[in-house]
Amino acid sequence: MSERPRRTAVLISGSGSNLQSFIDRAATGAIGLELCIVLSNRPDAFGLTRARKAGIPTECLEHGDYPDRESFDRAVAAVLDAYDPDLIVLAGFMRILSPWFVQHYAGRVLNIHPALLPAYPGLDTHQRVLDAGEKWHGSTVHFVTEELDGGPRILQGRLAVDAGETADELCRRVQAVEHQIYPQAAQWFGEGRLECRDGATWLDGELLSEPVVTDFS
Ligand code: GAR
């Protein structure tokens, strides 16, 4: 465990169920992270209510108020930096980040994507997986780079697709997996076990050429 909890900023756009999984794990004291700020680009994001209930400071910046992507990202970073974060956690933050933002926090931004990357980057993953008749689906925690959904992978949770299930049902099962794997990967960071170096993931001093995979079937 590192000496002090890593200060962690969580960026959201919506429900914030992944944020809740961090709040719940942080309450156990096990995660090695201090949630120092939750920032949303949408004022009606339910995750802001979750954060306030947990006593975490909140901020909202609406991207429509800024002329372009980078000026919004610079404003977000100015807010975040006032909280001196060690780690930035994207938890359903539905914005593509500018290269400036990614470089500003190089190696310190985590994302969760609802697919077994590199398969199915982008949107609408659950329906696309069903349409393709895939046997397996899941979610991936990865470091963020300038390539959308393309940064070094850390941890995947996978599950078998059930015959006849709908995209909504699959989404719910994948989200339950996310609530396990995302705080777990962040905890590794909090414990000083996880880093992004030379464009790759390192866990316990070992280069991870493939992500750690946990089967939730
Ligand atoms: C999560 O399922 C996450 O994987 C997805 O948004 C959802 C947010 O849910 N993220 C992306 O699609 C990013 N490309 P939440 O607000 O309940 O945590």
Q: What attributes characterize this protein structure?
A:
Rossmann fold; alpha/beta; 6 helices; binds glycinamide ribonucleotide; 8-stranded mixed sheet
In short:
The chain has 217 residues and is of the alpha/beta class. It has helices at 17-27, 46-53, 69-81, 99-104, 125-131, 167-190; strands at 6-12, 33-40, 58-60, 87-90, 109-113, 136-143, 153-160, 194-197, 200-203, 206-208, 212-215.
Written overview of the protein:
- The protein starts with 5 loop residues before the first strand and ends with a strand.
- The chain is of the alpha/beta class.
- 32% of the residues lie in helices and 27% in strands.
- The strands form 2 sheets. The chain has an 8-stranded mixed sheet, sandwiched between helices.
- The chain has 6 helices and 11 strands.
- Helix 1 packs parallel to helix 6.
- The protein has 2 domains: 105 residues, Formyl transferase, N-terminal domain (Rossmann fold); 107 residues, 3-Layer(aba) Sandwich (Rossmann fold).
- It binds glycinamide ribonucleotide.
- Glycinamide ribonucleotide binds next to helix 1, strand 5 and helix 6.
